[in-house]
């Protein structure tokens, strides 16, 4: 009988390991490692999470968490927060075959300086490395065993600056839980446009409202649902939120139908909103590295109108509509055309569903991840700390 591999996962920042209070990193960790639990012994390290809210995988935090919370509020001391957190964990981390770091490339060198000699896999869902110089990227490469990014777009942000790091890079997509997210045509509502995400300028909520206002000229019976808040499980009345509410109020006074359901629980509620929608809109203004909500919409056979930037085109392929969310004429036309052609809308949704099942099912992602970890452990050369480290 083969001994199970051991992996310690480091969640970044203050993300809780929870389906309600956590985000995409916590979800990725749970969805992949829960499917591999009979082959990998995993422990997740992150921000303190109450047992009743946490995912059902072993989860621990650093004894220094409270100290770090205090340090984070002191401007001159804030820079030491991550060091203190990792220093308190290092004795436990040395027990693992692999340390899997989410979204914090700077932690690689810290762990090596603290004496961790096992395999390190850095997993990025952001473009941090795109802002590093070639010299910095070359210096990172020998300290890690594999760099995993969630899209070819992310690879393009650093690949040309460091051949040695690019040689260690692997694209592993994000996924959808097809047991939770699946088509249910019996509940599909006509002419319903759905958005879910953070209510902030990067996500393009105002652009969606203005596009909806244009759609009403040809589809006065269309409805818009805007789900989400300013954070995971929390909501703040920001100037942007007030602006969104004000624009929505004027549209409703003119006859539009807009619904704000607030924060939507990922595991308990989100699938039903996708299943009800005619169209899912993802008008991100920034370059989304992937856009997890898109594959969850696709899993429900809901066609996606997404921004033509970042990793979104890789996700949709030819099974969605790509638009410039800042080009109002183009955005309005994409929504209106699909609402005018319900059969084409259904065909697109079905094609998206098939693409999701073949490429983005978490079962497929988990097996890809397992194969990568096996390769890393089997072929790695033991790390030797250099003088300049």
Rg value: 22 Å
The averaged pLDDT comes out at 92
Q: What's the architecture of the largest domain in CATH terms?
A: 3-Layer(aba) Sandwich
The CATH class assignment of the largest domain is Alpha Beta
Between the first and last Cα atoms, what is the distance in angstroms?
Answer: 39 Å
- Largest sheet strand order: 3-2-1-4-5-6-7
Poorly predicted segments: none
Strand % is 15-25%
Q: What is the general shape?
A: globular
CATH superfamily of the largest domain: Glycogen Phosphorylase B
Task: Describe what this molecule looks like in 3D.
With 389 residues, the protein is α/β, with parallel strands linked by helices. The chain folds into two domains: 5-175 and 362-379, Glycogen Phosphorylase B (Rossmann fold, 3-Layer(aba) Sandwich), CATH 3.40.50.2000; 185-359, Glycogen Phosphorylase B (Rossmann fold). The chain has helices at residues 24-35, 65-71, 81-93, 106-113, 134-140, 152-156, 163-166, 205-215, 239-253, 266-276, 292-299, 312-316, 328-340, 342-359, 362-379, and strands spanning 5-10, 40-45, 59-60, 98-102, 119-124, 146-149, 169-171, 192-196, 223-227, 257-262, 279-282, 304-307, 321-323. Helix 9 links the parallel strand 9 and strand 10 (257-262). The model has no long low-confidence stretch (mean pLDDT 92).
């Amino acid at each position: 009988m083969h001994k199970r591999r051991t992996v310690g996962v480091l969640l970044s920042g203050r993300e809780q390991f929870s389906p309600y209070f956590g985000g995409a990193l916590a979800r990725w960790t749970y969805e992949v490692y829960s499917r591999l639990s009979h082959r990998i012994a995993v422990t997740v390290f992150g921000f303190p999470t109450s047992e009743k809210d946490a995912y059902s995988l072993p989860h621990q935090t650093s004894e220094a968490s409270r100290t770090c919370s205090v340090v984070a509020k002191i401007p001159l001391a804030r820079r030491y927060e991550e060091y203190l957190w990792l220093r308190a964990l290092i004795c436990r981390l040395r027990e693992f075959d692999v340390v899997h770091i989410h979204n914090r490339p700077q932690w690689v060198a810290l762990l090596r300086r603290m004496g961790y000699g096992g395999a390190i896999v850095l997993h990025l869902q952001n473009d941090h490395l795109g802002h590093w110089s070639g010299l910095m990227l070359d210096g990172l490469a020998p300290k890690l065993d594999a760099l995993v990014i969630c899209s070819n777009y992310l690879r393009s942000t650093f690949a040309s600056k460091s051949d040695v790091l690019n040689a260690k890079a692997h694209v592993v997509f994000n996924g959808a839980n097809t047991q939770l997210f699946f088509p249910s045509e019996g509940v599909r509502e006509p002419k319903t446009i759905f958005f879910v995400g953070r209510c902030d300028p990067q996500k393009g909520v105002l652009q969606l409202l203005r596009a909806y206002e244009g759609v009403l000229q040809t589809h006065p019976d269309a409805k818009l649902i805007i789900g989400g808040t300013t954070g995971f499980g929390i909501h703040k009345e920001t100037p942007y939120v007030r602006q969104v509410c004000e624009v929505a109020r004027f549209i409703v006074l003119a006859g539009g139908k807009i619904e704000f359901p607030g924060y939507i629980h990922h595991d308990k509620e989100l699938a039903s909103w996708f299943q009800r929608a005619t169209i899912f809109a993802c008008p991100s203004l920034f370059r989304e590295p992937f856009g997890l909500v898109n594959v969850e919409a696709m899993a429900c056979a809901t066609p996606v109108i997404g921004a033509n930037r970042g990793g979104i085109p890789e996700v949709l392929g030819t099974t969605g509509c790509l638009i410039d969310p800042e080009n109002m004429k183009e955005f309005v036309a994409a929504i209106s055309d699909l609402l005018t052609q319900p059969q084409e809308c259904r065909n697109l949704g079905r094609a998206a569903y098939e693409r999701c099942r073949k490429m983005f099912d978490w079962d497929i992602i988990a097996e890809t991840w397992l194969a990568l970890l096996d390769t890393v452990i089997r072929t790695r050369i033991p790390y030797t700390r250099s003088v300049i480290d």
